[in-house]
Write a structure and sequence with these properties.
There is one protein chain. The chain has 492 residues and is mostly beta strands. The chain has one domain: 8 Propeller (Methanol Dehydrogenase, Chain A), CATH 2.140.10. The chain contains 4 helices and 35 strands. A hairpin with a 4-residue loop joins strand 16 and strand 17.
Amino acid sequence: MPKTLPGALSILLGLAGPAAAQGVVTYHNSQTRHGAYTVPGLTNAAAATMTLDSNFNAAVSGAVYAQPLYWAPKGGTAELIVATENNIVYALDPSTGAVLWSRALPTPAPQNQLGCGDINPEGVTGTPVIDPTTGTLYVDAMTDANGTLQQQLYGLSLTNGAILSGWPLGVDAAITKAGGTFSSKYQGERSALLMFGGNLFAVYGGRDGDCLPYKGTVIQVDPASATLTAVWQTRASGGGIWSQGGIASEGTGLYVTTGNTIGAQTYGDGESIIQLKPGLARPNTNAEFYAPANWQTLDSQDLDLGGTEALPVNVATTGGKTAPRVIAFGKDGNAYLVNRNNLGGIGGKADIVKVSNGQIKTGPAVYSTPSADMVAITNTNPVGCTQIGIMMLKLAPSGKSAIKVAWCAAYSGNGSPIITTSDGTKDPIVWVVGASGDNLLHGFDAKNGSQVFGGGGATLSGTQYWGTILVADERFYIAAANKVYAFKFTKG
């Protein structure tokens, strides 16, 4: 049987049962953010038959950076959930793309009213999350109410999109009341929300341009009362949390990566992998955080360690055992692999391998078997490869070969990959969209990097940087500006 991490969501598409009934309720299909999907019948041969679904036609209003979600309540109507920068949330028919319901939230913020940034307008950027126990969608929206700029958290009914009683939660006022500092004019939110232990978690950073003031921020919200119950912020200015996956969990702890702090002369939680627990108490031991010894250099050169989310992995060792690790990638081009049970503090023990001569800023995907752990990343300037675009790394627990290049393949774009298997282990395929590149869907054999699908001639206009793929109902869904695409395949 393949290894699993506690708390991971297992989705078996096309099969009956509670997991299939819930669908894909969070970014990259699990709290671990691994981007792993099980799709019966999707072999390499079947992958070659991928084609745009001509029966699916979905128009939406606004650019889409957030990953779509898929809600399939047992005995109810399945919904494809899409949220846009125009602050409109849609429930679409997964087969046809027809609008089942839509909810317009308050006006998004025009970029010229914000301190800085590169999204215009800025509305919903981070991926929402579904609480399958209550059938509620939670979404963070940047809003402009007559000049009042505010990040707001909403709880929406998945039955009809109605805003639930007690919502929205104004993030500025809630954090200020809890003793923190927060200004939505400068604080961006482009990371996925997380449901964990019955609580809702959201993370915040800055915006493109690093305009101040902002801090890396994590909030914990009680969804039953729509109230903020805990907040954690970097002690130094900056240190934003801005990766697509944002916050991950292996079932016990919570993990975030932080970016560059600004003007910090002493360590203030930037350039770090941070382990938190529900309640968000500040870590007070070296076991609960890791920062490279050269964190100040990374600060000064804007080379955030927090280029990607921190992914908890259980790396295979001898005798069928596993070693608990966390892997993250930085804008410095390094892969960082640290011990999840003892992150090590500043300059602590870590396996650091230069895998790119460029910046790594798109979400990784993980393929795990009992004998190997592989991590796929898009990489426009890989180290040790002649093929440029996407890279697969093989992990070992530690040592000189802790992070090795398994293969590289040619690819043009800045998408965040996912990995499919036909049964949890067999037929592994890496899928990625040429976001802001060739705008094609690509598939690669995860074992050797050979191409199994090259787009099929279907150009997906309007795909956004770091965009990823939702797999559900034996279809691939890709959201872009003003449109959602669906692909289907023929089983072998």
